[in-house]
Design a protein that fits this description.
CATH topology of one domain in chain B: Rossmann fold
CATH superfamily of one domain in chain B: P-loop containing nucleotide triphosphate hydrolases
Distance between the termini of chain A: 8 Å
Structural class of chain A: alpha+beta
Largest sheet of chain B: 7 strands, mixed
CATH class of chain A: Mainly Beta
Radius of gyration of chain B: 30 Å
CATH topology of chain A: SH3 type barrels
Strand order of the largest sheet of chain B: 2-3-4-1-5-6-8
Radius of gyration of chain A: 11 Å
Strand order of the largest sheet of chain A: 1-3-4-5
Helix content of chain B: 55-70%
Oligomer: heterodimer
Shape of chain B: elongated
Strand content of chain A: 25-35%
């Protein structure tokens, strides 16, 4: 199962689902990371974490750990 | 439920919006600068409230609520914000809610709009950031959105104020239509289930397709005229809307978030921020010091050497001076932070700092408060409110006093001046920089140690999270930055100011009583010399000196005596008081210019009374510097730490832990230096 944390720089993907068991899952859904939406990995910080994803025209920096509940 | 609107109640308009949606800009427009910033009772969540500017002739209160993402809170602070939106403890339920919506991020922002409408608030939607939307070759039909949502929708360009008049007219309408019996649905009715949330977003996406349309590419009219443009626009509902982030922002991020360049830019930005705090502030600080020393000596001449005269010149004016002397740094710090935040860079900085800081139990959002700590711990601790995770927030608050705040600069400057040869001032610069680097490394070390024992020390165990919007780069709005700067400076004056003044007065009592009118030999001396002698005699026989003698056994291992002990007690008012109290204790009555040279001379001559050894040596002075790096000697910081953490636990631990470290490390330094023959 691939998640947003496995994306390569510049890679696009469509969200399949959000893992409900992750404590940040609800907040991620609320800010627009919903199934069917396209995400792009735009940037990685030093040590490759956090990562910058584009969603619905906005860029969000989230930790890899949080990205791992975005199933693609 | 809130009581129905009585005829006498001034209507309450609450501004709601996601972070970066232009909410504060709109608030500033409507309120001018006459707002008050208040905390929700019993919490650290704050809001600003004001009457709407009288020139707009709308009689209503406007409340700027904290930025929220959703009505379903995900942290204790968010819960307070949401609860207060439904029923404010002081103002009750808002008659009108204005929500700012970034139209370039329509779907994400409509989510909160829908929640508000579902909760039955009387909503007015204000569309902002239209320039960003137009850069994507898109526009939005506010009339369509209005009819779909069933509420008023207006466009505002908050940078130019265009659309503001329409908003005011519409507000007037809404106020005249306020009905008394509209009930709010409690927040439980708002969607909390994942399925409902997804359904809500599906609906929003439908709305988005209805109201957004592509601008005719041939219509490159820069001066946008809405009615004219509307006719020429081609509606392309069926086409999937490109939902890319702002192109300019993506380009800039290629550098600012670049693997190597990004780090370089980050350090450059921080270095510039840092040096400007010091360089820009120092002439202002000198000026304030000059003014207050003039005031002090002036009032001494005016009132003579009497109780009142002394109280005014040494107690009151000095106390006031030590409050105001930090104002330039606080103003400049918040100014620069405001510019960085408004431009969009600050969020990138937090992102870059997140990984290294998370390794020691902190958060990327800890970075700005920590940086602010180099100016003053008080605004820095206030700035930790943006960290949603309590454990990380408390840990950040815990280590902030270790950041070398600007109050320590005069102390370091004096002690370094004592250590280095007069003809080589550049060594002083290196020494100062080393102190800073030393303090940064030790604070990181202490943070990681505290993090190891966090179950015992911090006692908060919620899961760590870092979700931060990287907003589009924009030109900062100076008015907003200035307003925010003034807001923070006022908070500093209100919160720390009184404490510092009370303590200065208390300290004055300690140094003035009980021997208020000492007898000195006046034969053959000028009036000035008599006054100087009296001052010295008074402090040598004061309560402060008795207290200093009690703590002398503690000072001895550090190679210091009761006189330095008294000065260290005095630093609890504010660290820089160390210099002035040394001056007092070593009988420096120099007026004006060169007080530092006189103190240095006195320090060189000072001997420990019973042994006759020199008091200030290389070893003891270095030890004293180390002591200042760690010691938690600022009662204002203790007070604010108590306030922001909601208990005495953290501040008490800070005092115990930092004082112990300060004492032990200072002792080891002095003993170690002496062991190697450096005295």
């Amino acid at each position: 199962m691939r998640t947003a944390s496995d994306l390569k720089l510049g890679e696009k993907a469509v969200i399949k689902d959000i893992d409900n068991t992750h404590p940040s899952s609800h907040r991620l859904l609320e800010i627009g990371f919903t199934p069917g939406q396209e995400i792009v990995l735009l940037t990685k910080s030093i040590f490759n974490d956090p990562i910058g994803l584009s969603i619905r025209g906005t860029i969000f920096a989230i930790r890899k750990n949080e990205a791992s509940c975005i199933i693609i | 439920m809130t009581p129905a609107l009585t005829k006498n109640k001034i209507p309450l308009i609450t501004l709601v919006g996601q972070p970066n949606s232009g909410k504060t800009t709109l608030f500033n427009y409507l309120s001018g600068k006459n707002f008050k910033t208040v905390n929700y009772p019993g919490s650290t969540v704050e809001y600003s409230i004001s009457k709407i500017l009288s020139k707009f002739s709308i009689n209503a209160n406007i409340l700027d609520s904290p930025g929220i993402i959703s009505l379903i809170p995900s942290s204790p602070d968010e819960k307070i914000s949401v609860d207060s939106l439904f029923s404010h403890p002081k103002f009750g339920k808002p008659e009108i809610v204005i929500i700012t919506v970034d139209s370039s991020q329509l779907s994400r922002h409509l989510y909160l709009v829908k929640q508000l409408i579902d909760a039955n608030f009387n909503v007015i939607v204000v569309l902002t950031m239209l320039d960003l939307l137009r850069k994507k070759n898109l526009d939005i039909s506010e009339s369509k959105l209005s009819s779909i949502l069933g509420c008023k929708v207006l466009k505002i360009d908050s940078r130019t104020g265009k659309g503001l008049n329409e908003l005011l007219l519409s507000l007037k309408d809404s106020i005249s239509e306020i009905s008394d019996n509209e009930e709010l649905f409690p927040e439980q009715l708002v969607n909390t289930q994942k399925e409902k949330l997804l359904e809500s977003y599906r609906h929003i996406e439908e709305i988005e397709k209805e109201v957004l349309f592509r601008k005719d590419p041939d219509n490159g009219n820069k001066n946008f005229d809405i009615s004219e443009a509307n006719k020429k626009l081609v509606v392309l509902n069926s086409v999937r809307l490109p939902n890319k982030p702002d192109a300019f922002t993506l380009k800039v991020d290629k550098f600012t978030l670049h693997r190597y360049w990004g780090i370089l830019i980050f350090f450059l930005v921080m270095a510039v921020t840092f040096t400007s705090i010091f360089w820009l502030a120092s002439p202002l600080m000198e000026f304030i010091n000059e003014v207050f020393s003039l005031l002090s000596s002036g009032s001494e001449k005016l009132f003579g050497d009497t109780l009142i005269g002394n109280l005014i010149s040494n107690g009151l004016i000095n106390g006031l001076g030590s409050v105001l002397v930090f104002l330039p740094q606080i103003l400049i710090l918040f100014m620069i932070l405001g510019l960085l935040e408004d431009s969009g860079y600050l969020a990138r900085g937090a992102m870059l700092a997140d990984k290294p800081l998370s390794m020691i139990g902190l958060n990327g959002k800890s970075f700005v408060p920590m940086l602010s700590g180099f100016a003053c711990a008080i605004p820095a601790i206030m700035a930790t409110r943006t960290i949603s995770n309590r454990r990380e927030r408390f840990l950040t608050i815990f280590i902030i006093p270790l950041m070398s705040c600007s109050a320590r600069i005069p102390v370091y400057a004096l002690l370094i001046a004592f250590l280095i040869p007069q003809d080589k001032p550049w060594i002083g610069g290196i020494a100062m920089a080393s102190i800073y680097i030393f303090s940064i490394f030790s604070s990181l070390l202490i943070a990681s140690l505290v993090n190891k024992f966090r179950e015992k020390i911090i006692r908060e165990s919620d899961s760590s999270s870092f979700i931060l919007e990287l907003p589009a780069y924009r030109k900062p709005k100076l008015q907003d930055v200035l307003n925010n700067t003034i807001k923070n400076a006022t908070q500093y004056l209100k919160k720390a100011g009184p404490i510092i003044i009370y303590l200065s007065l208390f300290l004055w009592v300690l140094t003035y009583f009980p021997n208020t009118d000492p007898q000195v030999n006046v034969t053959g001396k000028t009036a000035e010399e008599v006054s100087e002698l009296k001052n010295s005699e008074r402090i040598m026989t004061s309560y402060a000196s008795s207290l200093g003698k009690i703590i002398e056994p503690v000072m001895k291992p550090l190679g210091l005596d009761w006189r330095v002990g008294v000065s260290l007690i005095a630093t609890f008012a504010a660290r820089e008081v160390f210099v002035s109290s040394l001056a007092l204790i070593f009988k420096i009555t120099e007026e004006g210019d060169n007080i530092q040279a006189s103190i240095l001379k006195a320090m060189k001559e000072a001997k420990i009374e019973d042994t006759g050894e020199k008091l200030f040596t290389t070893a003891t002075t270095t030890g004293l510097i180390i002591f200042f790096v760690f010691a938690m000697q600022c009662l204002s910081t203790v007070a604010i730490s108590r306030k922001e953490t909601g208990s005495w636990r953290i501040p008490a631990l800070q005092i115990i832990v930092f004082s112990t470290i300060a004492y032990v490390v200072s002792f080891l330094t002095v003993t170690g230096l002496r062991f190697f023959g450096i005295n």
